[in-house]
């Protein structure tokens, strides 16, 4: 089975690369290429279509994305090209070649105002450019490869939404907090935004299960188990890092409101995903987020 992976140099891409099933022939790509990876710029739709025609994969695992939530507010064209245009281009080309598409998406397609976990079928209502661009990618998938698409593309696309992705490499909240715990005596972190962290290790396992099992469910949700605020995660990073001998003394974490820490992009205040049905379908047991965070810290390079 041939799988074309995008974003292979990113934090999720590296975890996916480490967990490749034996039956998979992996074509690993990233924007600039190098280090054994092929170059594939997701901002260039025709380049994306050409990659599908050239390699004719059984699956495209689109783990690459524009994820700079705040910067997207000043770069909407680039965000939409990568997050909306690339999935559309892949889907268009796959209609010709016959493959399938697994699109990794985000909790940010919801506005976070309902105060309870979001179900698979709920209507998208993103707040900022990043969320709108990811929603555009989902919409393209549904139009061309969704169960309601009709024709040859019907049922050949899977959207996998996740939240607060963190791993032992790359840029993410857990690694930023670890650095700040080492550098400062006090840290201010927002406490009124609630979601759930997701380890790249468990997310990669879910992605490969979708592909290996040939799952055709149009939308899935995957995160680690439980709920947390950014404040909770920051405190946990300090406590766990001290237990593991990664720092002598954690910083004091002070809770802030969103209003006290303004950023260019508005974020959902409550973006928990209802993952119960997806976990049953994938037959994967959930990992409590704090346990997954500990495993992340234990595997730092």
From TrEMBL:
Gene3D superfamilies: NAD(P)-binding Rossmann-like Domain, UDP-galactose 4-epimerase, domain 1. Pathway: Carbohydrate biosynthesis; dTDP-L-rhamnose biosynthesis. It comes from the Bacteria. GO terms for molecular function: dTDP-4-dehydrorhamnose reductase activity. Residues 1-299 form the RmlD-like substrate binding domain. It holds the Pfam family RmlD_sub_bind. GO terms for biological process: dTDP-rhamnose biosynthetic process. Its EC number is 1.1.1.133. It is an enzyme of class 1 (oxidoreductase). Belongs to the dTDP-4-dehydrorhamnose reductase family. Catalyzes the reduction of dTDP-6-deoxy-L-lyxo-4-hexulose to yield dTDP-L-rhamnose. This is dTDP-4-dehydrorhamnose reductase. It comes from Cyanobium usitatum str. Tous.
């Amino acid at each position: 089975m041939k799988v074309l992976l995008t974003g292979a140099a990113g934090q999720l891409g590296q975890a996916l690369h480490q967990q490749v099933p034996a039956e998979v022939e992996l074509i690993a790509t990233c924007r600039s290429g190098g280090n054994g990876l092929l170059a594939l710029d997701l901002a260039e739709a025709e380049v994306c279509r050409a990659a599908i025609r050239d390699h004719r994969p059984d699956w495209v695992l689109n783990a690459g994305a524009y994820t700079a939530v705040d910067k997207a507010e000043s770069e909407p064209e680039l965000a939409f090209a990568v997050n909306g245009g690339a999935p559309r281009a892949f889907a268009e080309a796959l209609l010709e070649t016959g493959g399938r598409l697994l699109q990794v998406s985000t909790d940010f397609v919801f506005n976070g105002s309902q105060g309870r976990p979001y179900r698979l079928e709920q209507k998208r209502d993103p707040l900022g450019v990043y969320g709108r661009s990811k929603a555009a990618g989902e919409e393209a998938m549904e139009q061309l490869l969704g169960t309601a698409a009709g024709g040859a593309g019907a049922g050949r696309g899977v959207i996998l939404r996740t939240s607060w992705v963190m791993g032992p490499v790359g840029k993410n909240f857990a690694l930023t907090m670890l650095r700040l715990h080492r550098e400062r005596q006090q840290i201010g972190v927002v406490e009124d935004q609630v979601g759930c962290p997701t380890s790249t290790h468990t997310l990669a396992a879910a992605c490969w299960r979708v592909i290996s099992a040939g799952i055709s469910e149009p939308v899935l949700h995957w995160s680690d188990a439980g709920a947390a605020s950014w404040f909770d995660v920051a405190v946990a990073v300090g406590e766990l890092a001290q237990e593991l001998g990664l720092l002598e003394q954690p910083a004091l974490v002070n809770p802030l409101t969103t209003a006290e820490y303004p950023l260019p992009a508005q974020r959902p205040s409550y973006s928990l995903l209802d993952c119960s049905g997806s976990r049953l379908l994938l037959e994967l047991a959930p990992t409590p987020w704090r346990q997954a965070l500990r495993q992340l810290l234990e595997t730092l390079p």
